[in-house]
């Protein structure tokens, strides 16, 4: 019996522990969502940009060829020059129709300025040339009239501006001329090139009859040949004092997992010159549109930016604490396209930064940038989280079932142990006998058998044991107690009178062997 009780107690403990273990799992299972949001990639793509550049150096003793003196501007005697005939030849990159014109600007710098039209706006296509003339006497007369009106004389400067308006860029070539009473000085730089095209100016000076020369015309001296100087590529050390110009190229490529329609790109390239934490200045370099991959070549005015830094440093007398200036090229590519999964509308940005320190310009070594992208769709999928190796749906089934099973098992085993350990139910007649024995100690006497009732004996029943005990006390007689299976009889015999109280078993007292129980209780 003891082993069985120990076994049952062990099962109760195990059931309780398992029940406590399943409750947190049940809470977690119902706290976790059965479905979660998940992004699914419908289309993947990649944008790639790459910078490349060449830095052209001035002639130098370090890289060669040795520097040559800058040619001086040609001079002509003003008194014997009648007219100057010009020819402007333009060679465009794009053979589409463009608009060309030539203006002449007369000025006394910072005092007055006047613009004359030499060639009105003219449509040109392909390689073209424009001719025009300057009458020196008429120009001198204009200067004299203006100076008389404002009563200010001084410098007489002329600038010829040849311009060609292209779809994406305007070509401008300028030639300065200086007039005095005795000399005419013409700039020597007669060639100019931009991305959209190149131009060459040529002229002939027509002379009056004079005692100096028998020639009737004069030509400008030959334009110095362009000297091929050294160039620096990415990775080379750049000494700023030797920089002449820089040509940069930006390459862009777009790749996609699926076909793409109506792809367009808008690209703007800017240069930013800055002194960190002090000032910054931005210069637009190039803007273009295309319908896919492209490469874009553009000039970078490094020498101009370096001069700009010197000018700001002189103007402000402030230098950055690190004594480092940054020159940054930024390419912004805005791409739009249509796909079967939706539109693409993104901006790809790549930068190339150069740090200027102590006369050395150092560019970033990383010239290539890739940027992945995708079109995604959010869908609901079953929660992939696991709880003790179970999916959320499985946990929501198994944990409630396990909790219920262990709870019922715990109740069953607990009730079983309780029933086995519950003390035997004491009948009401026995409880009454115990109370009477304590209350009327020395008055009640237990007997095995009561004397038989005689024929002439009178029996007087009492309603309670207390009444009977009171009568016995008055008669100075003991109370005789006979315990039987279904009743307890108390009586007091006084001669031929028997006073009696009978306590019978109540219907609720369900005892199988009441006699044995009563006897045991009496013995106790």
In short:
Helix content is 23%, strand content 46%.
Characterise the protein shown here.
The protein has four domains: 2-34 and 383-421; 44-54 and 232-381, Immunoglobulin-like (Sandwich); 72-218, Immunoglobulin-like (Sandwich), CATH 2.60.40; 428-523, Signal recognition particle alu RNA binding heterodimer, srp9/1. It is built from seven helices and 27 strands. It has helices spanning 2-31, 136-150, 302-316, 392-421, 428-439, 465-475, 514-523, and strands at 35-57, 75-77, 81-92, 98-108, 112-124, 128-135, 156-165, 170-179, 183-186, 191-194, 197-207, 217-218, 231-232, 238-239, 243-256, 261-275, 279-290, 294-300, 325-339, 342-357, 360-363, 368-382, 444-447, 458-461, 479-483, 487-494, 497-504. The strands form five sheets. It has a six-stranded antiparallel β-sheet with strand order 2-9-8-7-4-5, with no helix packed on it. α1 runs antiparallel to α4. The longest helix is centred in the N-terminal third of the chain and has 30 residues, at 2-31. The radius of gyration is 60 Å and the shape is rod-shaped. The protein starts with a helix and ends with a helix.
Features of this protein?
Immunoglobulin-like, rod-shaped, alpha+beta, 524 residues, 7 helices, six-stranded antiparallel sheet, 4 domains, 23% helix
List the helices and strands and how they pair.
Layout: H1 2-31, E1 35-57, E2 75-77, E3 81-92, E4 98-108, E5 112-124, E6 128-135, H2 136-150, E7 156-165, E8 170-179, E9 183-186, E10 191-194, E11 197-207, E12 217-218, E13 231-232, E14 238-239, E15 243-256, E16 261-275, E17 279-290, E18 294-300, H3 302-316, E19 325-339, E20 342-357, E21 360-363, E22 368-382, H4 392-421, H5 428-439, E23 444-447, E24 458-461, H6 465-475, E25 479-483, E26 487-494, E27 497-504, H7 514-523
Parallel strand pairs: 23-25, 24-27
Antiparallel strand pairs: 1-13, 1-15, 1-22, 2-9, 3-6, 3-11, 4-5, 4-7, 7-8, 8-9, 10-11, 11-12, 14-21, 15-18, 16-17, 16-19, 19-20, 20-21, 25-26, 26-27
Helix pairs in contact: 1-4
């Amino acid at each position: 019996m003891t082993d069985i009780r120990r076994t049952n107690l062990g099962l109760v403990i195990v059931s309780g522990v398992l029940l406590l273990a399943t409750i947190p799992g049940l809470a977690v299972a119902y706290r976790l969502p059965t479905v979660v949001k998940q992004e699914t990639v419908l289309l993947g793509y990649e944008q790639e940009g790459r910078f490349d550049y060449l830095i052209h150096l001035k002639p130098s003793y370090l890289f060669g060829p040795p520097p040559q003196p800058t040619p001086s501007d040609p001079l002509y005697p003003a008194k014997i020059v009648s007219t100057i005939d010009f020819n402007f030849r333009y060679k465009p990159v794009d053979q589409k129709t463009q608009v060309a014109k030539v203006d002449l600007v007369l000025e006394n710098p910072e005092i007055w300025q006047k613009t004359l039209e030499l060639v009105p706006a003219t449509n040109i296509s392909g390689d073209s040339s424009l001719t025009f003339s300057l009458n020196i006497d008429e120009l001198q007369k204009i200067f004299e009239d203006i100076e008389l009106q404002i009563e200010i004389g001084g410098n007489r400067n002329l600038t010829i501006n040849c311009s060609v308006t292209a779809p994406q860029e305007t070509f401008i070539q300028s030639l300065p001329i200086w007039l005095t009473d005795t000399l005419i000085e013409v700039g020597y730089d007669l060639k100019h090139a931009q991305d959209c095209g190149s131009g060459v100016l040529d002229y002939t000076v027509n002379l009056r009859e004079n005692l100096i020369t028998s020639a009737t015309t004069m030509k400008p001296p030959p334009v110095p040949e362009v000297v091929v100087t050294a160039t620096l590529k990415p990775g080379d050390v750049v000494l700023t004092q030797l920089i002449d110009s820089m040509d940069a190229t930006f390459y862009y490529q777009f790749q996609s997992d699926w076909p793409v329609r109506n792809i367009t790109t808008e690209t703007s390239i800017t240069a930013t010159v800055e002194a960190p934490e002090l000032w910054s200045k931005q210069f637009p370099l190039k803007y273009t549109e295309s319908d896919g991959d492209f490469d874009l070549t553009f000039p970078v005015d490094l020498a101009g930016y370096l001069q700009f830094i010197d000018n700001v440093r002189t103007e402000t007398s402030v230098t950055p604490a690190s004594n480092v200036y940054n020159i940054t090229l930024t390419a912004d590519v805005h791409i739009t396209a249509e796909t079967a999964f939706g539109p693409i509308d993104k901006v790809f940005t790549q930068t190339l930064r150069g740090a200027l320190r102590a006369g050395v310009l150092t560019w970033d070594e990383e010239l290539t940038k890739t940027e992945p992208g995708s079109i995604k769709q959010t869908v609901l999928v079953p929660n992939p989280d696991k709880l003790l190796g179970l999916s959320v749906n499985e946990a929501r089934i198994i944990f409630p079932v396990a909790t219920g099973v262990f709870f019922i098992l715990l109740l069953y085993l607990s009730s079983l142990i309780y029933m086995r350990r519950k003390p035997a139910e004491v009948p009401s007649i026995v409880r009454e006998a115990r109370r009477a024995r304590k209350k009327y100690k020395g008055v009640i006497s237990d007997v095995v058998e009561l004397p038989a009732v005689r024929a002439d004996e009178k029996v007087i029943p009492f309603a309670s044991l207390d009444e009977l005990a009171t009568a016995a006390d008055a008669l100075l007689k003991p109370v005789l107690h006979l315990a039987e299976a279904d009743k307890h009889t108390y009586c007091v015999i006084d001669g031929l009178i028997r006073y009696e109280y009978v306590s019978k078993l109540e219907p609720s007292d369900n005892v199988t062997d009441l006699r044995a129980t009563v006897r045991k209780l009496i013995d106790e």
